[in-house]
C-alpha cells in the first residue's frame, strides 16, 4: 500500500490552477484576491482537507500566529484553569497555543524559554514565579511581548494580569481574627518569591500588628507547594499553638486539613483554614475548603486579550505602559471556617 502523500500549498495551487502566492493570500485572509478565485481556492482546500502550517504562514506574514504559555508545573490545577481561558481567546483570534512547563528534567528553565523563542512565537504568557537573571536576560533581549498571568514576579517592567494577592491575604487574616483566633499562621509555597516576600507575608504581619496579635516569623511556614510537606508540617503548626491558618495554595491546604483530621482535630470547630487559590481541589476535601476566589478563567482570557493588543503594537515601550490589570477577588466561605 502506497503511503499517502501530504497535501501542501503546492498541491492546492496546482489543483486550483493558481499560484502558491494566491493560495497564501487566501489562507492569510488577504483581501487582494478576486472573489471567484477565493471561492475556487477555498473549495480545493476543503476538498483536499489542507491544513496550513503555522510556520509556513508566518513566512508570508512575518507572524507565526502562535503564542507561548509557560507554567511552573503541568499538574497544577491553578495554572491549568488559567490556561483554559488563554486557549479559548487564542482560538477566537486564530492563534495556536504552545504550552510548556518549567518543571522538566530534560531542560533548565532558561533552555525551556530559548526553545520556545526558537519556535518563533509572537508573544509569551508567563505564569511562573520569579525570574532568574538568565530568564530576565532572555526576555529583555527578545523582541516579542511577554506578559505575566496569575502571579507576581520580581520584574516590575513586565505587564501582568492578576488579583491583589496582598489584599486577599489581608481579607483572609482579618476573617480569622474576627473569629477570635489569637494565634494565626501563614503557610506559603516559597518565602523568597515576590508574590509572598513582597505581598502575602508583609500583609499577614500588617494585619496582625494592627489587631494587636502576635506576628512571629516562626508562624510563617514554607511548604514548597507540596501536599506531603504541608501534611508533615501540620504537627509543628499545632505544637506552636496555632488555631487558624491561611494557606497560599489549595493543595497544601488539603494536606494540612487531612493531617489535622488524622490527628483527631475537628475542622472548623477546633481549627480554621482558608486557602488561597479557589481551584477544584477546594470542593474535593471534606470539609470543603473556604478559599480566596480568583476569577481564574478570566485571568487567562484577559491575559490573552491583552497580549493580542501588545503584539499589534509597534512601539514596545508604549505597549507595556499602563497595561497591568488587577481583577477583583472574594472569600468564598465553605466548611473549613465557622459560619
From TrEMBL:
Residues 7-61 form the HTH lacI-type domain. Gene3D superfamilies: 3.40.50.2300, lambda repressor-like DNA-binding domains. The keyword Membrane does not apply. InterPro entries: HTH_LacI, LacI/GalR-like_sensor, Lambda_DNA-bd_dom_sf, Peripla_BP_I. SMART domains: HTH_LACI. Pfam families: LacI, Peripla_BP_3. GO terms for molecular function: DNA-binding transcription factor activity; transcription cis-regulatory region binding. PANTHER family: ARABINOSE METABOLISM TRANSCRIPTIONAL REPRESSOR (PTHR30146:SF150), LACI-RELATED TRANSCRIPTIONAL REPRESSOR (PTHR30146). This is Catabolite control protein A. It comes from Limosilactobacillus equigenerosi DSM 18793 = JCM 14505.
Amino acid at each position: 500500500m502506497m503511503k499517502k502523500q501530504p497535501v501542501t500549498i503546492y498541491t492546492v495551487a496546482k489543483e486550483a490552477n493558481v499560484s502558491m502566492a494566491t493560495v497564501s493570500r487566501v489562507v492569510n485572509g488577504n483581501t487582494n484576491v478576486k472573489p471567484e478565485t477565493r471561492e475556487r481556492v477555498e473549495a480545493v482546500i476543503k476538498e483536499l482537507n489542507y491544513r496550513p502550517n503555522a510556520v509556513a504562514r508566518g513566512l508570508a506574514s512575518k507572524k507565526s500566529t502562535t503564542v507561548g504559555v509557560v507554567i511552573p508545573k503541568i499538574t497544577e490545577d491553578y495554572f491549568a484553569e488559567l490556561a483554559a481561558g488563554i486557549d479559548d481567546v487564542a482560538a477566537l483570534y486564530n492563534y495556536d497555543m504552545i504550552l510548556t512547563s518549567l518543571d522538566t528534567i530534560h531542560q533548565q528553565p532558561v533552555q525551556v524559554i530559548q526553545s520556545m523563542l526558537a519556535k518563533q512565537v509572537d508573544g509569551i504568557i508567563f505564569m511562573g514565579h520569579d525570574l532568574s537573571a538568565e530568564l530576565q536576560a532572555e526576555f529583555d533581549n527578545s523582541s516579542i511581548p511577554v506578559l505575566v498571568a496569575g502571579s507576581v514576579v520580581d520584574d516590575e517592567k513586565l505587564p501582568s494580569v492578576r488579583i491583589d494577592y496582598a489584599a486577599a491575604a489581608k481579607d483572609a487574616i482579618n476573617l480569622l481574627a474576627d473569629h477570635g483566633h489569637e494565634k494565626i499562621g501563614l503557610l506559603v509555597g516559597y518565602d523568597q518569591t515576590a508574590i509572598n516576600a513582597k505581598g502575602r507575608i508583609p500583609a499577614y504581619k500588617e494585619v496582625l500588628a494592627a489587631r494587636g496579635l502576635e506576628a512571629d516569623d516562626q508562624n510563617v511556614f514554607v511548604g514548597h507547594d507540596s501536599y506531603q510537606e504541608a501534611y508533615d508540617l501540620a504537627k509543628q503548626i499545632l505544637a506552636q499553638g496555632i488555631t487558624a491558618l491561611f494557606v497560599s495554595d489549595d493543595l497544601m491546604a488539603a494536606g494540612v486539613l487531612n493531617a489535622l483530621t488524622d490527628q483527631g482535630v475537628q475542622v472548623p470547630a477546633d481549627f480554621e483554614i482558608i486557602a488561597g487559590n479557589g481551584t477544584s481541589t477546594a470542593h474535593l476535601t471534606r470539609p470543603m475548603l473556604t478559599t480566596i476566589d480568583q476569577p481564574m478563567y478570566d485571568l487567562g482570557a484577559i491575559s490573552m486579550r491583552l497580549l493580542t493588543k501588545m503584539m499589534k503594537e509597534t512601539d514596545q515601550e508604549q505597549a507595556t505602559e499602563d497595561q497591568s490589570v488587577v481583577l477583583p477577588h472574594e472569600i468564598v466561605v465553605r466548611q473549613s471556617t465557622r459560619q
